[in-house]
Each structure stands twice: as structure tokens, then as C-alpha cells.
Amino acid sequence: MKTELLQKIKETNPVVLSITNFVTIADVANSLSAVGCSPIMSRDAREIPELVSLAGACEVNIGTLNQSDEDLILKTAAEANRQKKPLLLDPVAVAASAYRTDFVQKLLDNYHFDAIRANAGEMAALAGIAWQSKGVDAGEGDGDLGQIVEAVAKKYHTVAILTGEKDYLSDGQQVLCNQYGSPKLTKYVGTGDMLSAIVAGFLAIENDLESAYFACQLFSLVAEKTRSKGVFAWFNEFLDNLNEIDEEKLLNL
């Protein structure tokens, strides 16, 4: 585990431009702040060039995709590519509607994403593999998750991050598996959105597979060690623990 990345992110406090959905935007901002990033959100495409210039990394999330958000997301992707800033895509419920599917394909056809973070159903859809998705939830399927994530990484020349009970990550050359986690991560809406933003933050430190892998390890290990029984009490304790973790504490978990 590259624990030194945690110290680096706290020292550098990278700005992360998060174009995320309105359901979880506050949780995303607070989780970024907890790990040591400086979050900035936007709802207006006119300011995107300036905000991208401030950012160490950018992420776009289609969770509440609508027509007015399309320009915002497209502008962010274009500017991140133009300014050579790490860019992450969270294709929430990509297979739930033709509108989402078509828009995500437009993004992937026209812009380069350094990372894609998705659940099993979403990642399978990107790989063109049949899967029984259930809205924003992962659903069920028979595919090998390691092969699915590797296929997406190769197809889009990206770091593909498939999160779930276990996390699978690939850059097309190798597949890594993170086995930390907590069942409560699936009970609180928005933890995937939070992780996407946090991964983007670590890509601002080192833009590679190992940095994304560490972000997943950090997030899921802190979740695993959070002990509150009720989902909402657990979530508040989880945020506290993310905020308080440092390299020494992480090594002792």
C-alpha cells in the first residue's frame, strides 16, 4: 500500500473540480475535504475554463444527467483534455436509459478519461457484456469481473475501476484486486460518488493505476474499520475516520 500518497495529498491539498449530481454533492465535497483535497463544484459552463486551470484533477458524474448539464459536462471534459488535467468519469446507471448510454458513448468517443469508476453493471455495459443492472445498483451477471475491467481499460486506454464487494482495477496491462470493504458502503447512497471524487484527488498527486488503487484501499479499509451499527451513524463515523486518518494511523489499522 502506497501510504505515502496520503501524506502527499494532505500536504499539497489539490483542488478537485467535481461536476457531480445534486443528490450527493454535499457528501462528495465533504469526503474530498476529509482526505485532504480542496473541492470545487460548478453548475455553469461559462466558468469551467478558469476552474479547470485551478484544479489538480477533474471528475464528471452523470448521476442526475439532464439537458442543461450536458454542456457543463462536455465543457469540463474538453477543458480537462486541453489543459492536460487528470479526468475521471463516473457513468452512473449508464445502461438504465438510452439517453444515458448515448451521452456516455459521446463522451468516450470524443474525450480521453484517465480513469473510469463504475460498479459491475455499469462497467459491463461499457465493455459490451450482458448484465442485469438495476438502476444505479450493480445488479447481477456471470462475467469475470477482472476480465471486464481489463477489457474496459484496453478499450478506452484508461484506468478502469470496478467497485463492489471487492474492487477490481486495471490499466490494460495488469489487474489489481482490493479486498477491503464494508457492506454498509452499499447501504448509504452516494459512497460510489464519493470514491470517484477521491480517486480523482489522488490522480492529482500521481496519475496512474497505483494511485487509484491506493485511493480504493484507503476508502474501503477505513469503511471496514468503522464500527457503528446503524447505517447513518456509521456514515458519520466513517467521515470522521476519513478526516482523522494519517499515514501512521493507516499503517496501524
UniProtKB/TrEMBL annotation:
Its cofactor is Mg(2+). ATP binds at residues 117, 163. Pathway: Cofactor biosynthesis; thiamine diphosphate biosynthesis; 4-methyl-5-(2-phosphoethyl)-thiazole from 5-(2-hydroxyethyl)-4-methylthiazole: step 1/1. It is an enzyme of class 2 (transferase). Substrate binds at residues 41, 190. CDD domains: THZ_kinase (cd01170). It catalyses: 5-(2-hydroxyethyl)-4-methylthiazole + ATP = 4-methyl-5-(2-phosphooxyethyl)-thiazole + ADP + H(+). One of its GO terms (biological process) is thiamine biosynthetic process. SUPFAM superfamilies: Ribokinase-like. Its EC number is 2.7.1.50. The keyword Lipid biosynthesis does not apply. One of its GO terms (molecular function) is magnesium ion binding. Keywords: ATP-binding, Kinase, Magnesium, Metal-binding, Nucleotide-binding, Thiamine biosynthesis, Transferase. Pfam families: HK (PF02110). Catalyzes the phosphorylation of the hydroxyl group of 4-methyl-5-beta-hydroxyethylthiazole (THZ). HAMAP family: Thz_kinase. Belongs to the Thz kinase family. This is Hydroxyethylthiazole kinase. It comes from Lactobacillus pasteurii DSM 23907 = CRBIP 24.76. The lineage of its organism: Bacteria, Bacillati, Bacillota, Bacilli, Lactobacillales.
